[in-house]
Design brief:
Elements (H helix, E strand, L loop, with lengths): L2 E9 L3 E4 H8 L3 H8 L3 E4 L6 H10 L4 H6 E7 L10 H9 L6 E5 L5 H15 L4 E10 L12 E11 L4 E11 L5 E2 L8 E2 L1 H23 L8 E4 L4 H11 L6 H10 L3 H4 L6 H12 L7 E8 L3 E9 L9 H9 L2 E2 L2 H9 L6 E2 L8 E7 L2 E6 L1
Parallel strand pairs: 2-14, 4-5, 4-6, 11-12
Antiparallel strand pairs: 1-7, 1-8, 2-3, 6-7, 8-13, 9-10, 12-13, 15-16, 16-17
Bound molecules: acetoacetyl-coenzyme A.
Length: 380
């Protein structure tokens, strides 16, 4: 049975900070960010957007009545959870009007969890071929003011439907996995911001990429020539490029580099969206690139702590017709730029209990209030 990604879309909040504004404010050469990290803008979430609303807004870009009838599993992946107990997935049942005989849960292993969710979704569909699985990746990445990770923040969600006979790509069966108990990036209980050992995290990312790619190649006997593109988890785009350079060179594999640059064309204007960032780059590659049906894409999922997986998928005939290119481009070009003062407020101030937020006609789904520690959402 062919199982894979049937629909995929992303949503980012309406605010962004230009990376040059940040560089000037911090007294850093802007070229360090634009050339050194290959990043240009970072999405910033307003108070009325949390992981639930980002996820709901991304899903509403494509959700149909047929999808609602068929979705019997929601896998919500995040590392910016809003409750220790109740999963963010349960909110989507009421906001999106999903079935009540649905399994709804939240999964965590840093940015890797979405890759695991695709694997579990596939297993579920093997048992229940008629079902569709809603796989969500939604995060708000915050390292704090004046931190080393500050230029690598962002916010957004990717929403996907996994089904049999998918319209976009078929997930292949082989994968290379590597896991170790390390502290490269983590956010302990009680801290609002991630802790990170920046240099070590870069080294681990590249080591895990080589291990999982080698492992995958050993199983499949595939070589670089078997891939139209290699895509990466993108905490910031330069690390993807540096990893690609470990296994390929521009002279012999020019198209892998061309496709890499295409794949970061949304990430570099959005920033790190943690769990969704690999899938954001896949959306960019499919929407902005020229890959053909039948071609294979390699994908590297990495989640600090750390678990990594290299896996692959093949494109389906007519896949372009099932993307949301214009909607995504419009979303990115309609955003509002923030100055440093407003950025600092959105980054540091939290929505607390007993708060009522104003109606926001720019968004479909918004956080309306928190009362008795319950979040109330509004679908405009
Ligand atoms: N002009 C052009 N380039 C410049 C420059 C200038 N004036 N100054 C510096 N650079 C270049 C450097 O040469 C370097 O490029 P290369 O990697 O190609 O050599 C690049 O800019 C970055 O320079 P530094 O390494 O000196 O930057 P830094 O010490 O400020 O740290 C960082 C960068 C480690 C990424 C930091 O931003 C950080 O900690 N980010 C968060 C952690 C992270 O994203 N880690 C990635 C792996 S972990 C992961 O993937 C999980 C996750 O989602 C977090």
């Amino acid at each position: 049975m062919k199982i894979g990604i049937h629909k995929m879309s992303f949503y980012v909040p309406k605010f962004y900070l230009d990376i040059n504004t940040l560089a000037h404010a911090r007294g850093i050469d802007p070229l360090k960010y634009t050339n050194g990290l290959l990043t240009h803008k970072m999405s910033v979430a307003p108070f009325n957007q949390d992981i639930v609303t980002l996820a709901a807004n991304a899903t509403l870009n494509y959700l149909t009545k047929e999808d609602i009838k068929a979705i019997d599993l929601i896998l919500f992946t995040t590392e910016s959870g809003i409750d220790y107990s109740k999963s963010a997935a349960t909110h989507l049942i009421s906001i999106l009007g999903l079935r009540n005989d649905v399994r709804a849960l939240e999964m965590k292993q840093a940015c890797y969890a979405t890759t695991a969710a695709l694997y579990f979704a596939k297993g579920h569909i093997l048992q229940h071929p008629e079902s569709k699985v809603l796989v969500i990746a939604s995060d708000i990445a915050k390292y704090g003011l004046n931190s080393s990770g500050e230029p690598t923040q962002g916010a957004g969600a990717v929403s996907m439907i996994v089904s049999r006979e998918p319209n976009i790509m078929v997930l292949e069966d082989q994968y290379g996995i590597h896991s170790e108990d390390i502290y490269d990036f983590w956010r302990p209980d009680g801290l609002d911001y991630a802790q990170v050992d920046g240099k070590f995290s870069n080294e681990m990312y590249k080591k895990f990429f080589l291990k999982t790619f080698d492992n995958y190649k050993m199983q499949t006997k595939h070589t670089l020539d078997d891939f139209a593109a290699l895509t990466f988890h993108i905490p910031y785009p330069k690390i993807g490029l540096r990893s690609l350079e470990l296994v390929a060179d521009k002279a012999n594999n020019p198209s892998l580099f061309e496709n890499f640059y295409t794949s970061i064309s949304y990430n570099k204007y959005i920033g790190n969206i943690y769990t969704g960032s690999l899938f954001l780059s896949i959306i960019a590659l499919l929407e902005q690139g020229n890959l053909k049906a039948g071609e294979r894409i390699g994908m590297f999922g990495y989640g600090s702590g750390a678990v990594a997986e290299f896996f692959s998928a093949k494109l389906v005939e007519g896949y372009k017709a099932h993307l949301n290119k214009e909607l995504h481009e419009k979303q990115l070009s309609n955003r509002t730029e923030l100055d440093m003062e407003k950025y600092a407020v959105y980054l540091t101030r939290k929505v607390t209990n007993d708060t009522v937020l104003e109606d926001d006609l720019d968004v479909k789904v918004q956080l309306k209030s928190i009362t008795d520690y319950k979040r109330n959402y509004q679908n405009n």
